[in-house]
Design goal:
CNF1/YfiH-like putative cysteine hydrolases, binds zinc ion, 23% helix, alpha+beta
Length: 240
């Protein structure tokens, strides 16, 4: 599903649809540094001067991006959609879920940053709705794929957070008590997103969550594992 090439992890399914969907690995450095991001794009043969990113706030704002005159970071934005070929969308993560959505017929894509707050706020549903409304995308042609993120094997939360996800069946499971005696739970964000996509009307076979766990695999930055400030970039673009 994901192929490693030139420091990038590229999604093969999207590639077949004419969509570049990829995430950087640690080998390419901290993507918060503009110089690192530019050289990562150049390495992949992409234009480092034509991309849109979001100043992420763990919110639910999804923005439609049509045209750019240079790199642009939109304020308070955790998701973007476009139908402009060659326009690259970017988000930054270190454990949160990068969610890639594409309708290859409508030639429309969405890239969403979904941490636990974004999942709670149903940002994926917002992106799907906007793709349908703005670009006439259709659920029967849409594909949703999750990129590398922290998975249930490593993601432990306390009861206050676990309670917020009770409505998602099988997404929360008791784990064990921490050293202070407080119960911990494992939280499966992919399962929450799968159920949200299903509730939006997406067929199960159009949803894929086969991806490495960032807290497990040292190839990716993980805030949970190391409290790092460094970030991985997830990018998506319709090939021109
Ligand atoms: Zn893990």
């Amino acid at each position: 599903m994901w192929r490693l090439s030139k420091g990038w992890c590229q999604n093969i399914i999207f590639e077949r649809m004419g969509v570049w969907a990829a995430v950087t690995t640690c080998a390419l450095g901290d993507m918060k540094q503009p110089a690192n991001f530019s050289s990562a794009l150049t390495r992949a043969g992409l234009d480092p001067s034509y991309w849109a990113g979001g100043a992420q706030v763990h919110g639910r704002q999804v923005r439609a991006v049509q045209r750019l005159s240079g790199p642009k970071v939109f304020s308070s934005t955790d998701g973007m959609i476009t139908n402009t070929p060659g326009l690259l969308l970017r988000i930054l993560t270190a454990d949160c879920v990068p969610v890639f959505v594409a309708d290859p017929v409508a030639k429309a894509i969405a890239l969403v940053h979904a941490g636990r707050r974004g999942v709670q706020k149903q940002i994926l549903k917002r992106a799907i709705d906007l793709l349908i409304k703005k670009y006439r995308a259709q659920l029967c042609r849409m594909h949703v794929t999750l990129g590398p993120h922290i998975q249930a094997c490593c993601y432990k939360v306390h009861e206050d957070v676990a309670c917020d996800f009770q409505q998602y069946r099988k997404a929360v499971a008791p784990y064990k008590k921490d050293k202070h005696g407080a119960m911990q739970y494992s939280l499966d964000l992919a399962e929450c997103l799968r159920q949200q996509a299903q509730q939006a009307g997406l067929a199960g076979k159009r949803f894929s969550a086969a991806t490495p766990c960032t807290a497990h695999h040292k190839r990716f930055f993980s805030y949970y594992r190391t409290k790092t400030e460094k970030r991985t970039a997830a990018v998506m673009m319709i090939k021109g």
